[in-house]
Amino acid sequence: MISGEQSDKKTGYLFAMLGGICWALAGVCGQYLFQSKAVTAEWLVPVRLVSAGVIILLVACFRKGKAAIFSIWQDRNNIVPIFIFALVGTALCQYAFFASISASNAATATFISYISPIFIMIYVVFRTKRIPARLELLSILLVIIGIFIIATHGNIDNLVISAQALIWGIISAASFAVYSIQPQRLMRKHDTLIVTGWGMLIAGAALFVLFKPWIYEVNYDLSVFLSLSVLVLFGTILSYVFYLEGIKRVGATAGSLLSSVEPIVATLLSALWLGQHFAAFDFIGFAFILIIPILLSRESLTKADRASR
C-alpha cells in the first residue's frame, strides 16, 4: 500500500512538472511566431483561445454529455461570473502575457507573470482583514527588488526592457490572480472543463471582435501550424490536464512549486532554440521572483501545520 502511494506521488510530481513544461513551450512558441513569422498577439491570442475553447468543450461533451455543457447557462446567477472569468481572467491575462512576450521574450514575460501569488496574497489579506505575515511582506519586497533588477540591471537611470513589456507582464500577473480566484464558486458547482472551455471560447470570441485577426496577413506555412498546434495542444489543453492530475496526487502546494519549472524551461528554450541572450542581472532578478512561490508555500504549510496541532 505504501509503495502504491509513493508511486502515485511520483506520478503526481511528474505530471505537475509536465504542466509547467507545457506552459513554457507555449510561451517560447509564441516568441518564435512573433520573431520569425511576424505574427502579432492580436492574431495569435484570439485564434488560440477559440481553438482551445472548442476542443475543451468537445472533450467535456464527450465525457459529460451535451446537456451538462449547457447546464451552466440555466442559472442566471452564473452569467456575470462567467463573463468576468472570460474577459478579465482569461482574455486579458492571455493577451497581456503574449503582448509582454512580443515586447521582450518568453523567459522575461514568464518570470514577471510569476509575481501573481503576490496579488492573490494581497487579495486574501484584504478579504480576511488580517495583518500580512513576515514571509508575505518579504515576498512583496522580493518582487520589488526582482522587477527593479530585471528592468534596470541595477541602474535606476536605465530601462533595459521596454515599459510596454513590464506593464503587460504585471497586468498578466494581476489578471491571472483573477483567473485563479474568481471562478472557484463556479467550479464547485460545475465541471472544471466546462467552466474553462466556456471561459476560453467567450474570451476568444471577444478578442476576435476586438482585434479582427482576419485582417492580419499571416504566412500559413508548416512551422506556423506546428507552433500553433503546440500552443493549443500542449500550452493550453495538456498543461491544464497534467497540472490538475499533478495537484490531485500531491496537493496544490507541492504542485505549484513543481510547476515553477516553467520559467526555468522557458529561459533554457529561449536561449537554446531562439538564441536569446541574458545578462547576469537577469538571472539575479529571476531568482528573486522565483523564490516567491516557495516562500508563500512555506507560509501556507506552516499555517496548515499549526492548524493540525
In words, what does this structure look like?
With 309 residues, this protein is an all-alpha fold. It is built from 14 helices and no strands. The protein has helices at 2-36, 41-64, 66-71, 79-103, 106-113, 116-128, 134-152, 163-181, 184-189, 192-211, 222-250, 252-258, 261-272, 280-308. Helix 2 packs across helix 4 (79-103) and helix 5 crosses helix 8. The radius of gyration is 20 Å and the shape is globular.
Rough outline: globular
Helical element count? 14
Count of DSSP E strands?
0
Rounded to the nearest angstrom, the distance between the terminal CA atoms is: 26 Å
Per DSSP, what share of the residues sits in E-state strands of 2 or more residues? under 5%
Rg computed from alpha carbons, rounded to a whole number of angstroms: 20 Å
Low-confidence stretches: 304-309
Q: What structural class do the secondary elements suggest?
A: mainly alpha
How would a textbook summarize the main sheet? none
Instruction: List the secondary-structure elements in sequence, H or E.
Output: HHHHHHHHHHHHHH
> Helicity range of the residues?
over 70%
- Integer average pLDDT: 83
